[in-house]
Design goal:
two-stranded parallel ribbon
């Protein structure tokens, strides 16, 4: 009998942020500051003992729904061939069709999808990039956490210096110039 999915373990993990993050949506009153990131982890195990790990995340809303939806549909993977990723993706979409094929439903499936690809790459003995077809040997890194609208200017500057010292190609800051106060004596 070919290798098949024997076990699916799902976990919901909350990562509190050291500093809350505000963006334009917070300043306009449409959202509250982000104080945590919620992760949905999926661990797969096959009958031959192979494993795959995947995750998805939710920044402000939907994490409990993602976890609940993933729990409802995950049993559809038991006994299936983990190589059939596209077919399994469709099977999971159909299993949860009553909640739709977008938003929370596909975010829940994303963690499972990543776990299936991780499993496939491990079984092939290849990095995932080689399994799906590498286009280049390296990429330039871009950091999107240079600072946020509520970050003081010295913090934004320190972040930028640190990112450049780490040889990052670029760093993005979200910064509100209306709250800036000049500290130079010039």
């Amino acid at each position: 009998m070919p290798d098949s999915i024997k076990n699916v373990k799902l976990s919901h993990v909350v990562l509190p942020l050291k500093n809350e993050i505000s963006d334009a949506k917070v300043f306009t009153g449409r959202q509250k500051p982000m104080t945590e990131v919620n992760f949905l982890f999926c661990e797969l195990e096959t009958s031959d003992g192979h494993t795959g790990l995947g995750f998805g995340y939710s920044k402000r809303a939907g994490a409990p729904a993602q976890f609940a939806h993933a729990n409802e549909i995950a049993d559809n993977l038991i006994g299936e061939d983990p190589n059939d990723i596209d077919r399994l993706h469709v099977k999971l979409l159909r299993a949860g069709a009553s909640v739709g094929r977008s938003g929370v439903a596909v975010q829940a499936i994303a963690a499972i999808d990543v776990a299936l690809w991780d499993l496939k790459a491990k079984r092939a003995g290849l990095p995932l990039s080689k399994l799906i077809g590498t286009h280049r040997d390296s990429i330039r890194c871009y950091n999107t956490s240079g600072g946020f609208l509520n970050s003081p200017l010295p913090e934004v500057l320190d972040n930028a210096k640190r990112h450049w010292s780490q040889a990052l190609a670029a760093s993005r800051s979200r910064w509100d110039t209306r709250t800036t106060r000049s500290t130079s004596s010039a």
